[in-house]
Amino acid sequence: MSESEAKAAFRAVRFADNGGEPFCPHCGADAVYEFKSRAIFKCKACEKQFSLTSGTIFASRKLYFADILTAIALFVNGVNGVAALRLSRELCINYRTAFVLTHKLREVFGAMATAEQLTGVVEIDGAVVGGSKRLGNIGNKGKSPRTPKNGKERNVVSLRERGQGGRTLTFVVGHEKDALGAILKHVHSSATVVTDEAAHWNVLHLHFDKVHHVNHSQEWSQRNGVHTNIVESLNSRLRRNHRGVHHRISPQYLHAYAAEVAWREDFRRTSNGQQFMMVLGGAARQPISRDWKGYWQRRGERPPKQPRERTPRPEPIVLDFRPRV
């Protein structure tokens, strides 16, 4: 795509609700006109100017539209995710630009998560991400490589709805038992819950009629179809995303990476073209990101400016040089 073709494609998706014709993102009026000298519009109703990306997650962008569409295509094509460093090399852009762009797309993934309660058979399991250091090769024989911690260990608890078109929700908590409130909120009381043999999941019997446990120390699944293999595949994808692609994920942004993996798991059977259009359409409808707009220009909150106390001026000294009589 040339830049003009990419711009026309983004314009068709951005104003798809109005048949491709521009409308004002401020007041919603469709009586607008386009400047010939600049690629902006002006509303005749509120007399405000706007561009193709105004009011979207790509607001105040500096990238070409062709680079944005290419970045979306490369990002959705990664089965286990795409590192920002790789994206910056393939697009010949700065790493910081690629880092913010990928997190904006992850914010779009998080916005696509279902808001309805999960029903049917819901599998629940947690995965530990980060927080461990590798031991040295000398003097550490027989010790577990996960013994030392650095305080950055987090648990990603995943709720996976079984069946075709099943939905996935992820939550980042300090311990698996801390996700009980999220489970009660997002899983319908009539659902059948399947977990592993961890003792902290026994409290689910008080809230759900059907709760099954699989003792993984003895078997992977039971003969009656009770298993957690689907949510285990999600955890496997999360581990590959962490260890094989990014290598290190900050706990501050772990929820965004988990939402990305959940989206990839939900739409793994969807073609790349459909995934591309879904993400592009979601990005065109996603409002301005409060976390990632101007990320590298942010500064810490400054204390309120106190009024300066002004000291009174001293009385002027008048010198009299007149001769005395």
- The CA-CA distance between the termini, in Å, is 99 Å
Task: Give the total of beta strands.
Answer: 8
Biggest beta sheet summary? 5 strands, mixed
- Helix-and-strand structural type: alpha/beta
Q: Calculate the mean pLDDT score and round it.
A: 87
Helix content: 25-40%
Instruction: Report the radius of gyration as a whole number of Å.
Output: 28 Å
The secondary-structure element order is: HEEEHHHEEEHEEHHH
Please state how the strands of the largest beta sheet are arranged side by side: 6-5-4-7-8
Please report the number of helical segments: 8
Low-confidence stretches: none
Overall spatial form: extended
The portion of residues forming beta strands comes to 5-15%
InterPro entries: IS1016-like_transposase, Tnp_ISXO2-like, Transposase_Zn_ribbon
Biased composition (Basic and acidic residues): 298-313
Region (Disordered): 298-325
Organism: Phenylobacterium koreense
